[in-house]
């Protein structure tokens, strides 16, 4: 498979206000390093999940890939190119190929518009498909791709007349109408009833298979990531701390944070990971811990962890972890487990 999206040394650092006195004396603004030098790629037809707690930088990463954040630094390549940065025309073309689905379909759909207008809006905004008859045919097709059949029954209804699952399908239809290659799906099922979550995830996978879509799937729920992803990247305070194929990250995690996330998921927990308990809250992102950012919460932290930043290193074929004590996996997983030091 070839790479569709490449993220290289992506940083998003926001300035935040301090007290006026402090700003006058220090003459510098405090920075929140929402995303702090991350690297990963997404192949054509691949689903990569970004998993982490709220505040870890997942959504900011998704928006930065779509060029929606002013403060971003680093390189984003799409189909091997970054010419969308050079002018508005190229950026518009890029945005037609790269779409976003938001967490809350109750908020993302304008309650004053009929479903027809909501789904047709990307065509109108981009000046595409002007004849009404063709536009309607496109809307019908997109609604049917999203599983709303017969589409004609939905066209002239309003969002409040639909269930949460149906609303999210409308949001998916609106993202699909421009025939994108890539979708950032930001917690797309977290606001939905448990009973419809699986249906939306199945639809996403079906669309990937039939339309050769690639996804960045953003979630705090590792069990959902495992269901849908080819690869999983675990984020903590703006950094990727582990990345690898979904099976390896879930069944044989190398980073204590990944192990702790698995630990709170009874369906994923293994006997070996039961001893890793996540303590405390996510630290303030404007006052990052020195060394390994995870050290104040890490059950196996040592003195070195307070001073030295652990680099991402390969622990198995295609699996990387940023922990001083993550070992290369060889004959058995037990030997490779973090904590065996
Ligand atoms: Fe824990 Fe140290 Fe590894 Fe960080 S580097 S995850 S603090 S053991």
From TrEMBL:
Sequence ranges assigned to domain ABC transporter in this UniProt record: 20-262
Keyword Nucleus in annotation: no
Keyword tags: ATP-binding, Nucleotide-binding, Transport
Molecular function, one GO term: ATP binding
Stored Pfam families: ABC_tran, oligo_HPY
Family: Belongs to the ABC transporter superfamily.
NCBIfam families for the chain: oligo_HPY
The protein's name in its UniProt record: ABC transporter ATP-binding protein
């Amino acid at each position: 498979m070839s790479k569709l999206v490449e993220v290289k040394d992506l940083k998003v650092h926001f300035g935040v206000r301090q007290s006026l006195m402090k700003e006058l004396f220090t003459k510098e603004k405090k920075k929140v390093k929402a995303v702090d030098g991350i690297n990963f790629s997404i192949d054509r037809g691949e689903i990569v999940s970004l998993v982490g707690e709220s505040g870890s930088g997942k959504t900011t990463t998704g928006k930065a890939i779509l060029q929606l954040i002013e403060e971003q630094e680093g390189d984003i390549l799409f189909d091997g190119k970054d010419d969308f940065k050079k002018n508005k025309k190229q950026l518009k073309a890029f945005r037609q190929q790269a779409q976003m689905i938001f967490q809350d379909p109750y908020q993302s759909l304008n309650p004053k518009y009929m479903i027809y207008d909501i789904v047709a809006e990307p065509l109108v905004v981009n000046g595409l498909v002007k004849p009404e008859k063709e536009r309607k045919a496109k809307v019908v097709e997109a609604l049917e791709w999203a599983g709303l059949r017969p589409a004609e029954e939905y066209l002239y209804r309003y969002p409040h007349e639909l269930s949460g699952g149906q609303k999210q399908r409308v949001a998916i239809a609106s993202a699909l109408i421009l025939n994108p290659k890539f979708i950032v799906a930001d917690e797309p099922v977290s606001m939905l009833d448990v009973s419809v979550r699986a249906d939306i995830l199945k639809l996403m996978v079906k669309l990937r298979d039939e339309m050769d879509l690639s996804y960045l799937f953003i979630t705090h729920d590792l069990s959902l990531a495992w269901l849908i992803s080819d690869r999983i990247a675990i984020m903590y305070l703006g950094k990727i701390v582990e990345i690898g194929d979904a099976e390896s990250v879930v069944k044989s995690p190398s980073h204590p944070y990944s192990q702790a996330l698995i630990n709170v998921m009874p369906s994923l927990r293994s006997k070996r990971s039961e001893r890793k308990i996540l303590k405390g809250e996510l630290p303030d992102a404007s006052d990052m811990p020195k060394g390994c950012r995870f050290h104040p919460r890490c059950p196996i932290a040592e003195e070195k962890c307070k001073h030295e930043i652990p680099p991402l290193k390969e622990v198995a074929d295609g699996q990387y972890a940023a922990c001083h004590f993550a070992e290369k996996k060889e004959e058995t997983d037990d030997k490779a487990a973090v904590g065996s030091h």
